[in-house]
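ingest -> fold -> write
write: protein_1
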Amino acid sequence: MSSPLSEDTAQPRSSRAPLWILITLCVAPIVASYLAYYWWPPAGQVNYGELIEPRALPDVEVRRLDGSSFRWRELSGKWALTVIDSGRCNAWCQEKLVYIRQVRLAQGRDADRLERVWLVSDHETPDRALLAAHEGLMVLRAADSDLVSMFPATHSRADHIYVVDPLGNAMMRYPRDADPRRMLKDVARLLRHSKWR
């Protein structure tokens, strides 16, 4: 026979499950935030081009190919797809010119809000046939100007296609191997959300 005293002192063995549940509830948010920060790409970034620190372009005088003067303020209120390259215009330069032409044409009724600019970074004269293929392209001699230095580059300014906003700020660039379809969507989004009409 067991004594009543021994029955009262024997306690049932408690489970540690509630303790582990509590620890898991405390640690899970920390682990989840770490994974979200370091492993999952941000969903908020929708632009394809690389945003750069906006730089106001100086209102210096440069020359068009015909010798007439030009100041960047003449483009006030318009977006500008800008290429910086030699007047010799190698194959990559020609490809960039085609990209910016096609991106502009694809904007439809908003195409007139977008200019195409080629800043010639040396004293070479562009080929006439090339210029004829890109009617409406604004070609500016900028070799001796401070204008070119305002466009940031990782290696060479010729490696990029730049976007200049309607206030005259260089604000985005596309890499050498840019996907023209994604560029097109980016520019369409800029024009759609821009207050400049």
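write: protein_2
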Amino acid sequence: MIARQVPLGAYALFAALLASAGLPIYMHAPKFYVDAYGVGLPALGVVLFGLRLVDVVQDPLLGMLAGRLRHRGFAAAVAAALLAAAMVGLFAVVPPVAPLLWFALTLALLFSAFSFLTILFYATGVQRAKDVQGSHLRLAAWRETGGLIGICVAAVAPVALGAWLSQPFAGFAVGFLVLAAVATIAMHSEWQAAGAGPDIGLNALRPVLADGPARRLLLVALMNAAPVAVSSTLFLFFVDARLSAAGAEGPLLLLFFACAALAAPIWSALARKFGAKKMLLTAMGLSIVAFAGAVTLQAGDVALFAVICAASGAAVGADMTLLPALFAHRMAQIVPEASIGFGLWSFVNKAALAVAAIALLPLLGAFGFQSGSENTESALWALTVLYAALPCVLKACAALLLLMTSLEDIQDV
């Protein structure tokens, strides 16, 4: 089978769908429910943390479900329909019950559909990568670049739509519905081409967990996701309180994700020439340098922080492209059905988010930090250490683990 028979554009489009669904979970939805319905931030935080815990636990189970399916195309279509319905319910429907309850119900549905589709999507990519010239890296480059473009569009769409629509979030939800239909149709042949995997259960976890390189890669994924979880949790506080630059969050986020999207295919090309592991270690080094630079920032250093956002965004482009490609390559070697492996992969990434959500903000509060108020220099220093210095340490640990992991650093991963 030749490379053109695998529609790489369909993978990019479906990745954009998933990415544009993921961003509202963490960025748009809480603020929308505070502004539109007056729901309190503490209550939203408790609901989000509870949903994250459920999401973390269910991922391995969803991975097993995805592996057992005999009609993946139908299951993907149903899950995509539920994902779109949850997005419309979240943003375009006036809550028929208490807003906080409606927020929890729609997000629970959105989380579940999103997780199932993500696992199925990545597992399908593992099965089809052998039919792509350049294998896992080339497919990953298309997939993750599409995802990063989806994040960029989702980040600015509600603001941009506000210039034309009185209800921009409803417009965003309708646009998402259209994208879900188009992306699902584009991927239809791929679900069928990948075929059904063998009947799997909990025993299918054994070859993944028994494999040393796979275990090490899962641990690398956990340590590598932790800096992103830390920085994303504290980003708004850092820009507002440390840099005294309220209102600059949107452009800085867009710069970050745009640089990640632009860098992803470059990292992929370099990995094909020099090896995925070497390039991933290089990107980790760039990320450490960028976060180390953030430690020195003071109020008004927005331009310098923009440079840091660009550099760290470029490094994330490698994280999102090369690390999943290395794991996918390993799964193709040790298990006949990759969905169970990517259920674990999703589990460790979301575990980092859950831990960050419950640990960082109380810790920051223990140092006397108060959002929206004047803070002491010691409180601001604690914010800086948690936002910038802690990710340096975590990223260095991830790099050391990867360096110690014995993998085939082949160019056609």
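write: annotation protein_2
The radius of gyration is 21 Å.
The longest helix spans residues 302-334.
pipeline exit 0
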